[in-house]
Predict the structure of GDP-mannose 4,6-dehydratase.
Amino acid sequence: MTKSALITGITGQDGAYLAKLLLDKGYTVYGFVARRSSDSRWRLREMGVEADIVYLDGDMADACSVQRAVIQAKPDEIYNLAAQSFVAASWNQPVTTGIVDGLGVTHLLEAIRQFSPHTRFYQASTSEMFGLIQAEQQDENTPFYPRSPYGVAKLYGHWITVNYRESFNLHASSGILFNHESPLRGIEFVTRKVTDAAARIKQGKQQELALGNIDAKRDWGFAGDYVEAMWLMLQQDKPDDFVVATGVTTTVREMCRIAFDHVGLDYRDFVKIDPAFFRPAEVEVLLGNPAKAQRVLGWKPKTDLDTLIRMMMDADMKRVAKE
Ligand code: NAP
Ligand code: G4F
């Protein structure tokens, strides 16, 4: 029988990759979409799936709309990807971030508990919950120490997912995903900011690139690989929490080198450090241990950072040339 899934945050990077993955598997896909004044479906068009989705409108801050969507879809699976996901913005919008990324999770879990308890639930948790890291390599047992309103809100979302699993026996799993990128990544995140700028500089449309802390280290993977891990979590008999990462960490500086190198430029000639891009509290380094995901889910990342950055550079070179 055809399975069905409801994806919140379907218009985001991961939503677009996940929608394509599920449609390719034969799912009926419902997309929970917030009303915006301008087009937000461009990623779904890029993936060629815009017309294949059943859209349900609402907002994670609005419990009534969340409840209505769950009742209308009564799906086999819900993937909660909706969030104010930009860490830097969370200091300027701490309350919205708390409501959408934190309480919004309860809106969904409560709707599932009351109206659709058979539904399996995936929560988009994050390595930002590790923040000021308490172990050199972070796994499912590493204590959390969030460093931003975003990290704090996500930690609430994570624990309420665990709590509803334990309290009400829901099939609710949490993916603690480390940074993952793609040509569909938002332009404000550092990898896309760099690949877009390198393409513009190469094509004479920009002169320099202002960045913040380029000594920060991240464990970067490819979004297309990571949505497979989300799906695998909901195919298990037992719900659980899983770290999804590559197990390799790299500085922003080295990522710049790879991107500029790909178009024959030296990043040192163009990157300027601007204090405006430093954060009130920084997560200096993240490095995940995906051993449990590999052992239980049979998941492994397929794309290394070099390949990922080259893929993003190629896409940005083409897009900038067309502008
Ligand atoms: P993204 O591109 O920023 O997408 C976020 C999505 O959430 C968009 O569809 C956005 O809609 C939607 N959204 C925001 N506020 C909403 C609201 N109030 N009501 C309903 N929808 C709302 O994020 P992403 O990179 O795909 O990440 C997906 C999820 O994984 C997020 O929860 C993020 O926090 C988490 N995560 C991401 C990473 C990563 O490295 N990418 C790592 C760990 C965890 P609009 O398009 O209309 O704005
Ligand atoms: O690309 P970023 O903005 O991503 P960040 O903060 O790691 O968050 C992303 O990954 C999380 C998973 O760990 C997700 F939960 C979250 O939703 C999001 O997807 O910044 C990466 C690093 C930071 O250390 C930042 O300080 O790059 C550093 N950086 C240096 N200069 C910069 C810049 N980041 C941005 N965005 N812009 C800069 O100019």
In short: The first helix runs from residue 13 to 24. The chain is about 40% helix and 15% strand.
